[in-house]
Each structure stands twice: as structure tokens, then as C-alpha cells.
Amino acid sequence: MKTAExxxxxxxxxxxxxxxxxxxxxxxxxxxxxxxxxxxxxxAHEFADAIVVSIYVNPxxxxxxxxxxxxPRTIEADLELCKKENVDVVFMPDTETMYGLDKKYFSIxxxxxxxxxxxxxxxxxxQGIALVVNKLFNIVEPDIAVFGQKDYQQYRIxxxxxxxxxxxxxxxxxxxxxxxxxxxxxxxxxxxSKEERSIAPKLYQALTYVEQQIKNGVKQPKLLLQHQxxxxxxxxxxxxYLSVYSLDTLQPVEQLSPGNKYVLAIxxxxxxxxxxxxxxxxx
Length: 283
Ligand code: AMP
Known about the structure:
Blueprint: E1 2-4, H1 7-19, E2 24-29, H2 35-47, E3 50-55, H3 75-84, E4 89-91, H4 95-99, H5 117-121, H6 125-140, E5 144-148, H7 152-164, E6 170-174, H8 194-199, H9 202-215, H10 222-234, E7 237-246, E8 261-270, E9 273-282
Parallel strand pairs: 1-4, 2-3, 2-5, 3-4, 5-6
Antiparallel strand pairs: 7-8, 8-9
Helix pairs in contact: 6-7, 9-10
The protein binds adenosine monophosphate.
């Protein structure tokens, strides 16, 4: 397995892979790798011949009060895991490499796809992600890029960005990787105390309960969602959002109708840890 820290190194390595006829898949991450990330690498292997993983904690997607400084950084273990998963190249740029030192004149704005879910709660978050992913796509120039359903809004925004900015990249979405008790795997789960960790799976349980009720015929889920939020608050969660959104437009939906696809998404704090999860379904 190779590593690259500079743009010229990663470009040379990807070029060599492509020249030898290999289809290159790219898995961007912020490191602190877990089974969820590795499922993306496994999916990448199914569709490509060579895998590039990037590990970069992107300061542009953290608000000043968020956890940029304390975000888990486990580079040695990450490299071991990548090696085990037969990753070809790990790109590990620093911030000077990614952003340079000069004054910036450009930013990426995102319209309606950014008004709800995490976009509504975390100001500047998806602008920071769109910026770094756009740059990474231009640097790596992969044939395929793999993202996780765990961050469905991120996937949808990048899907739209690829279309509107004409990136010649095929996107794949991997299902949410979960612990045995249902909790969505996340680098931030290490922040949870033992007690918090034991109640964290209630989030996924709430989602599956709501999904079941919808499958049983509920078409206006507002009260059902309110009730689940109250139950979670009683168990110690501080809710941010729990709603059903159109899978395509990411706008909240109050009246579900047959033949449409939806994402049921939740974000809640447990102590200081922000957890997110979602289920995608069609009725
Ligand atoms: P991150 O390192 O959190 O920026 O995540 C990097 C990529 O891994 C993103 O595409 C995430 O959606 C994906 N990812 C993170 N956690 C999971 C998970 N539990 N299941 C599937 N994909 C995940």
C-alpha cells in the first residue's frame, strides 16, 4: 500500500493506476476508521480495480463551537486497517496542501438541499463538505466515488454537485454500517460514556418503529414522530430533528403518498455527542 501527502504524489499514483488499465474508486474519509468506512472500501472493491482512501479532517466543515480540535485522529490504526482491506493508496494531505495559504475568493453555495436536516442545524457544514469534496475530486480524479448512506444528505448534495459541476465520476452509496445492537457506527461514538452507549441504540429503534407504523398504513406521521421525540427526550436524548423528507428534494413531507421514496432521518444529542441516523423507504 502506498501513501501520498502531496497533490503531485497522489496525481502521479492515480495516473499510474489508470495507465495500467485500472478503474479507480475513491473513498473520502476523516479517518478514525471503523466498520462503516470499511464497508465503503469493500463496496469499492466490487466495482473497481484500485482503491484510493483519503484521510483528512476538514476544518472548513466544523463551526467554531464544534469538535475540530478533539475529533479522533488514529492515523496508525487507520493505515493498518487500509492495508488489511487492500487499499492501494492512502492520501493524507495537510491543510496547507488542501487549501494553500493565500486569501480565498470562491465558495460553494447550496440551495434547497441544504435547508433542512444537518444543513438546517449546522451552518456552513455542507458548504465546507462540498468545497473539500470538489477539491478532492479534482485532485484524485477517480472513476468512482463511494459515500455512506449514514450521511444521506451529504450523499444527495454531492450527487447534485457531480451533476451540476460535470464531474466525470460515478457515485455509489453504501448502506449504514451498524453495531450489533443497531447503533450506526460513527467515529464520534468514542465520545459516548458507557451509560450513553447503552441507550444510544434507542435512536435506531425509534426509526424502525416509525418505519413499521408507516408500513402499517400511517400516512401523516407528524404525531407519531412527535411522540417518538418525547420518548427519546424522556430517555435522555436532546432532539435536533426527526422527520420524513423527500429522498430527492430533502424537503419535509407531512402527507406520504404511494410510489414515492422518502428518508426518515434523525439527529439527537446524547450528552455532548451528536448522533445521526436514517432509513430510506418507499411506500
Ligand atoms: P467521515 O469519516 O465521517 O467523514 O465518513 C466518511 C465516509 O464514510 C462518508 O461517506 C460517510 O457517510 C461514511 N460513513 C461513516 N459512517 C458510516 C456508517 N456507519 N455506515 C456507512 N457509511 C458510513
